[in-house]
């Protein structure tokens, strides 16, 4: 893939041109607001995040202090028609992921029909044979999905990876919006932006909708956390508080006669739905890791008996596997009968000899990833890697090719970002959140934009020095939409009220 300039989501393909017509007013705001004022507002937001305890820890880092994810004051904007197309593709993909999980732990039609190699599933460490034959309440496996997207042009969106296990980051989406409303109210007077603050209510309704029983006063839902030492503990606490449900640890739950109970000062309360933020390995020491202190003994037996819903369902990790990702176009086609509306990034499966040869010959051009890697770890970005790093990856690929996939180095879109020297383009990706309940699939109108704060970097992960931005989804009746409808696509820039 030849190099080409990155598409700037506000300025278009050429940063020297006027802003994209629909975003002219945002471009004007950036031009007229001094950098010092933008920086003051950004620092105010970060101070609030620190006071609230919105922090994370980097495992294995010698610096054990928790830190905030840097916040950038310049929003990323999706036009209404862009969002409509993205939503259709996201719903199709998540429905396919649910059908795939239901199938591989059930009839395995996709394997019988030869669409996927059998060993890719049954020999995959993320496949949980202990779950085979079980079916979650209402047949829904992936209740909460975070589908990572990248953009390379005005109408070019690609899925970078799927997160169907325990996707994180939604608390940043909510807190970023709250900060923007408080610090940049003029933007919300200018543009009609879809709200995201309904997410906790939508999540709770999704949880209740998959409860195996109603109960006299409605289903009892809880959030299960590994504890306050977990890097995402703030989010666990934040979501439980926002939904008005209990945040529990393993010691707060007990299974008796295949029913899950929560210990309270008023006695035991039956639990119907568990939003777990504990990985499969640690979920139930009687089924998975026997040394786990984070799980609930007997939980999988209660789940198998149909007495509790677990969100997301055990065994979902295989849908996150990057080798499985490479087959998603075929998976979508198999279960939906149509072509994927959101394409994958071109992917070479290093387990295949021809693909391995290509990757080994082009290591300085491609991005290589562990199939079960996350957080930016176990990854080689060829164009920016040192010779020693490339040779180390070459040896790893030759030794265990099945553990890796490779992708071309894309020209990820950029958004103006407040750097030390002032506003400057930085590469971004995007994680929208998709909820699946018994009443259907819904896409939250927003998401988590992650930004690579280092100039030229394509790595957006917070553990690798990335930051976040608010993500505006404009309503169909925003000023720009009315103008483009009535003025044949020409948009008049408007000033901001203060």
Distance between the termini: 46 Å
- Structural class by secondary-structure content: alpha+beta
Strand order of the largest sheet: 1-20-19-16-15
* Rg on CA atoms, Å: 23 Å
The CATH C-level class name of one domain = Alpha Beta
- Rounded mean pLDDT score: 89
- By DSSP (H or I, 4+ residues per run), the number of helices equals 15
Q: Could you say what the CATH topology of one domain is called?
A: Dna Ligase, domain 1
Estimate what percentage of residues fall within beta strands.
Answer: 15-25%
The oligomerization state is: single chain
Helix content: 25-40%
CATH architecture descriptor text of one domain = 2-Layer Sandwich
Protein name: Circularly permuted ATP-grasp type 2 domain-containing protein
Pfam family, one: CP_ATPgrasp_2
Organism: Sphingomonas taxi
InterPro entries: ATP-dep_Glu-Cys_Ligase-2, CP_ATPgrasp_2, UCP005522
In short:
This is Circularly permuted ATP-grasp type 2 domain-containing protein. Residues 75-452 form the Circularly permuted ATP-grasp type domain. With 498 residues, the chain is α+β, with helices and mostly antiparallel strands.
Write the layout of secondary structure elements.
Blueprint: H1 24-32, H2 35-52, E1 71-78, H3 80-104, H4 109-112, H5 118-122, E2 144-153, E3 156-163, H6 170-183, H7 185-190, H8 199-209, E4 221-224, H9 233-243, E5 246-248, E6 253-256, E7 259-264, E8 267-270, E9 273-276, H10 299-304, E10 309-311, H11 322-325, H12 328-336, E11 348-349, H13 353-361, E12 366-370, E13 379-381, H14 387-399, E14 404-408, E15 414-419, E16 422-431, E17 433-437, E18 440-443, E19 448-451, E20 467-473, H15 479-486
Parallel strand pairs: 1-20, 4-5, 4-9, 9-10
Antiparallel strand pairs: 2-3, 2-17, 6-7, 7-8, 11-14, 12-13, 12-14, 15-16, 16-19, 17-18, 19-20
Helix pairs in contact: 2-6, 3-12
């Amino acid at each position: 893939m030849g190099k080409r300039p990155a598409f700037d989501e506000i300025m278009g393909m050429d940063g020297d041109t006027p802003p994209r017509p629909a975003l002219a007013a945002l471009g004007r705001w950036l031009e007229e607001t001094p950098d010092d004022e933008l920086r003051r507002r950004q620092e105010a937001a970060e101070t609030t995040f620190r006071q609230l305890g919105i922090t994370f820890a980097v495992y294995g880092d010698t610096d054990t202090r928790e830190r905030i994810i840097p916040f950038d004051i310049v929003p990323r904007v999706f036009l209404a028609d862009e969002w409509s197309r993205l939503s259709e593709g996201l719903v199709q993909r998540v429905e396919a992921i649910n059908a795939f999980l239901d199938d591989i732990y059930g009839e395995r039609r996709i394997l019988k029909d030869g669409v996927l190699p059998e060993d890719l599933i049954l020999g995959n460490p993320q496949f949980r044979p202990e779950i085979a034959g079980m079916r979650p309440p209402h047949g829904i496996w992936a209740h909460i999905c975070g589908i990572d997207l990248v953009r390379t042009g005005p109408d070019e969106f690609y899925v970078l990876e799927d997160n169907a296990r325990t996707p994180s980051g939604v608390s940043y989406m909510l807190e970023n919006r709250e900060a923007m409303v408080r610090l940049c109210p003029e933007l919300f007077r200018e543009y009609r932006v879809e709200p995201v603050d309904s997410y906790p209510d939508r999540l709770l309704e999704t949880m209740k909708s998959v409860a195996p029983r109603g109960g006299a006063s409605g289903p009892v839902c809880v959030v299960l956390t590994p504890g306050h030492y977990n890097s995402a503990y703030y989010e666990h606490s934040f979501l439980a508080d926002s939904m008005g449900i209990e945040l529990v640890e393993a010691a707060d739950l007990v299974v008796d006669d295949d029913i899950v109970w929560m210990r309270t000062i008023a006695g035991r309360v039956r639990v119907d739905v568990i939003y777990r933020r504990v990985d499969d390995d640690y979920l139930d020491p009687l089924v998975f890791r026997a040394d786990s202190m984070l799980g609930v003994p007997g939980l999988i037996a209660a789940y198998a008996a149909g007495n509790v819903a677990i969100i997301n369902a055990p065994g979902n990790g295989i849908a996150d596997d990057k080798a499985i990702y490479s087959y998603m176009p075929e998976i979508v086609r198999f279960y939906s009968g149509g072509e994927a509306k959101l394409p994958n990034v071109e992917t070479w499966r290093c387990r295949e000899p021809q693909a391995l040869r290509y990757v080994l010959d082009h290591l300085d051009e491609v991005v290589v990833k562990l199939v079960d890697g996350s957080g930016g770890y176990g990854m080689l970005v060829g164009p920016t890697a040192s010779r020693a790093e490339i040779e180390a990856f070459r040896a790893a690929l030759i030794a265990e090719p099945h553990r890796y996939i490779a992708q071309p180095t894309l020209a990820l879109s950029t958004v103006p970002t407040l750097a030390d020297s002032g506003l400057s383009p930085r590469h971004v990706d995007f994680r929208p959140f998709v909820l699946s309940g018994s009443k259907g699939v819904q896409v939250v109108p927003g998401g988590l934009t992650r930004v690579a704060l280092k100039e030229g970097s394509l790595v957006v992960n917070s553990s690798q020095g990335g930051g976040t931005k608010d993500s505006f989804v404009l309503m169909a009746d925003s000023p720009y939409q009315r103008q483009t409808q009535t003025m044949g696509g020409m948009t008049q820039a408007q000033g901001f009220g203060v």
